[in-house]
């Protein structure tokens, strides 16, 4: 949690961009209930009344405008997000490079150039995913969940309870998946960094490798590092292969429950047919952000591992007196004198 809070601290430099993006995301999430609400109204109020059939075109157009509003807000959100994202990435990379210049030489002695480059380029980009995309997608998903859930419970509390019954099981599944995930993702980031380091060193020293005909030996070394990355990636994918389909099935249980208990409510005349149609439309909008939250969970774990590697550099101790001392005079004046020098 400490790592995530440190990452979020970079957002404070751009309050206007962040606020505008938040407003667009909130309105976009709220607009998704427009079409399902109109559909339920048309089925219950317009279709059974022949005298009101002439109103159908108006409600269809209104539903289309709901989709247009959602996508227009999404367009504005993406533009704002891109500017926000790139400015924050620039700030993080600037801080990281400035920190590298302040580190003592002994800090560089035990580290490969490729590993440092991976942290500055790749890890900062991965770290940004949770900083911008993750926070924004999570916020949009939560707002949509609350908005759609409120409409569902307002329509029929009993059916809504059955529809949301899988949610606690989804939360338990997410907890089980993330419990030991940090080590898995950190292992993958470290393996990728090791392979990049070897690649950087070998490309820089390709002339020496060719001079000593060491191509086969270096190829074996590269394959060994690449295999470590493969194993680390497969470890993550095996967990995801069970987690993602499992959570998808648990979510689909909600559809079956609504079909059963919602149909029973219609047959007992406790619910209108249009309300059941509304429920099915809302249910897809309810479990869509749940699926996004699962993907966000995956993204956050990977980004957190990258952020740990970035902050490892930022937390390193500066070179003594790196910020002390006065500025040199300009221009610097001096002489070099050679006395009693002879050449044989």
Explain this structure.
The protein has helices spanning 2-8, 15-31, 34-46, 56-102, 105-109, 113-155, 157-163, 167-178, 181-204, 206-211, 215-267, 273-314. Helix content is 80%, strand content 0%. The chain has twelve helices and no strands. The N and C termini lie far apart (71 Å). It is elongated, with a radius of gyration of 29 Å. It is an all-alpha fold. The model has no long low-confidence stretch (mean pLDDT 82). Helix 3 (34-46) runs antiparallel to helix 12. It has a single domain, classed as ABC transporter transmembrane region fold.
Essential attributes:
single chain, 344 residues, mainly alpha, ABC transporter transmembrane region fold, 12 helices, 80% helix
How are the elements arranged and paired?
Elements: H1 2-8, H2 15-31, H3 34-46, H4 56-102, H5 105-109, H6 113-155, H7 157-163, H8 167-178, H9 181-204, H10 206-211, H11 215-267, H12 273-314
Helix pairs in contact: 2-4, 2-6, 3-4, 3-12, 4-6, 6-7, 6-9, 6-12, 7-11, 8-11, 9-11, 9-12, 11-12
């Amino acid at each position: 949690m400490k790592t995530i809070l440190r990452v979020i601290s970079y957002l404070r430099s751009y309050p206007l961009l962040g606020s505008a993006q938040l407003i667009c995301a909130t309105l976009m999430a709220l607009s998704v209930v427009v079409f399902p609400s109109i559909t339920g109204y048309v089925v219950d109020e317009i279709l059974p009344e022949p005298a009101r059939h002439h109103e159908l075109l108006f409600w269809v157009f209104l539903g289309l405008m709901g989709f247009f509003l959602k996508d227009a807000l999404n367009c504005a959100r993406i533009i704002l997000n891109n500017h926000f994202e790139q400015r924050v990435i620039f700030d993080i990379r600037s801080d990281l490079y400035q920190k590298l210049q302040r580190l003592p030489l002994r800090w560089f002695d035990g580290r490969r150039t490729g590993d440092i480059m991976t942290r500055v380029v790749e890890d900062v980009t991965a770290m940004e995913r949770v900083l911008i995309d993750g926070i924004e997608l999570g916020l949009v998903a939560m707002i949509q969940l609350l908005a759609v859930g409120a409409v569902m419970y307002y329509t029929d509390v009993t059916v809504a309870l059955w529809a949301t019954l899988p949610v606690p099981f989804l939360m338990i599944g997410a907890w089980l998946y993330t419990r030991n995930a940090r080590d898995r993702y950190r292992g993958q980031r470290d393996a990728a960094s090791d392979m990049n380091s070897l690649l950087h060193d070998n490309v820089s020293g390709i002339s020496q490798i060719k001079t000593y005909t060491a191509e086969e030996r270096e190829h074996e070394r590269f394959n060994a590092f690449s295999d470590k990355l493969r194993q680390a990636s497969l470890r993550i994918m095996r967990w995801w292969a069970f987690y993602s389909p499992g959570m998808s099935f648990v979510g689909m249980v909600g559809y079956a429950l609504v079909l059963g208990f919602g149909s029973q409510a219609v047959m007992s005349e406790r619910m209108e047919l249009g309300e059941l149609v509304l429920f099915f439309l809302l249910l897809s909008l309810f479990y869509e952000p749940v699926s996004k939250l699962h993907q966000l969970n995956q993204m956050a774990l990977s980004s957190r591992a990258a952020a740990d590697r970035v902050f490892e550099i930022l937390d390193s101790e500066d070179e003594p007196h790196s910020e002390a001392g006065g500025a040199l005079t300009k221009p610097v004046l001096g002489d070099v004198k050679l006395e009693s020098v002879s050449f044989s």
